[in-house]
Amino acid sequence: MNTSVIAQVAYLVSAIxxxxxxxxLSSPATARSGNARASVAMLLAIAVTLxxxxxxxxxxxxxxxxxxxxxxxxxxxxxxxTAMPQLVAVFNGFGGGASAAVAAAEFVRLxxxxxxxxxxxxxxxxxxxxxxTFSGSLIAFGKLQGIVTGKPVTFPLQKALNALLFxxxxxxxxxxxxxxxxxxxxxxxxxxxxxxxxxxxVALVAGALVxxxxxxxxxxxxxxxxxxxxxxxxxxxxxxxxxxVLGNMMLIIAGSLVGAAGLILTQLMCKAMNRSLxxxxxxxxxxxxxxxxxxxxERPVRDVDAEQAAMVLAYAGSVAVVPGYGLAVAQAQHxxxxxxxxxxxxxxxxxxxxxxxxxxxxxxxxxxxxEADVSYDKLLDLDDINAEFDTTDVVLxxxxxxxxxxxxxxxxxxxxxxxxxxxxxxxTVIVMKRSLSPGFAGIDNDLFYxxxxxxxxxxxxxxxxxxxxxxxEA
Amino acid sequence: MGELLxxxxxxxxxxxxxxxxxxxxxxxxxxxxxxxxxxISGIAIVGALVVTGAADTPWVKALGIAGxxxxxxxxxxGFMVTDRMLRMFRKR
Lengths: 474, 92
Hints:
heterodimer, A: alpha/beta, 6-stranded parallel sheet, B: 4 helices
């Protein structure tokens, strides 16, 4: 495919807009215009592509674009913010699927007269990565949505089967890349090779789709955000590979930007969960709930009711709120916002300490709090809020557990080294939680039994509305 | 220099540039970053338009159109939902 000089220059402008758009995402004040800039870049790339290429059938192309835009637009407008990880998974799967479809179309178009192994390798890579991204993302969506079981699905010899399938797909791919595509150059068995080539290509697509499913089903539902993040990276790589197939720099640049973004986010998430990527991918974590039997309920705790909790909060000078996913599950963030507003009216300084993996994807809790109308300058990252706990009067922990467990500072603990919020350094800690049951890591939380900790048991939403009432009257 | 090699240069440099700008995005904005990046991966639409435009057999055309539809869902939905999230991030 030949791209004209004008189109190449326009692609370059588009690439600059993509990079600078992402750069604007580094501050909440400019992030929205950054996203707008990236979408302008995309529009420019699409417009230039349409003008620069001979489009034989405008009507069909237009219909396809409109259909996709309507589906995407409706999904984007109607989705609940708590369901964001599922939506990203679906969109991601479509991105990967599109790359695979383009590579497949090129394979069919080139047929036996392909230009040689270079393009062959990239077609195979693009199909393979795109196919894995497509089916893997759909399984991740199913797990997050509750259509597919959230528990890790394991069976005997699973890893061996996966390895064998991967090897098989690689061999088929290698054959296609080196022999099956571009058989025009390997004349003596060209006629047979064309048919075998088509058969092998179908096998490659099927293998990639099955591989995507098998790679994701053994991973537990709570680890899906890491998977989605990694698949996001793959969808970028698939697009870049498609760029190599078509010799299109726009695809290579945008694809590699996404590849880098997904990889960085995956690394950050693994670090915040104190797990390695290998452990997430092959650990089958959370098979039977908590991994270790925790001893709970043997030590005394101090529990409070809504009225007492309201008193402690209302007469504090500064309050830090630490929200966990339990808050979002209970849909209590709006009530929480009311409590915070009432406290601020009384002159209490309120801010939020958000752990990087609070919620169901990195930064998810911040979106949920922003939706509840919390000002973004009150959302503090792990390091910033940790510097403030020893001068904070009261910390209100809502539906979080492992991320506030001081055991992470004990080198012998299973969660040793996991980055936590040091809430125990505050003068008083109120923990709003259903029970003393352990969190995802399956270990007891010493925080609950500390002298300065008050346990406020109950359903987050119900207790939060009680708290609104009591703070108002305090 | 062959086209493949130029592509490789571009790929490596763009990855490094991406690493630089993305590592500066604060954790607060990681969800919009992920969905925004996700929308950008819909750049496959450019490839889909190229192959569909030149399609001369039904199979190529069908695959190309499937690519256009999927990529457009990804692009339009991705940018719109990212904007919807970022609109909520306000300072008071």
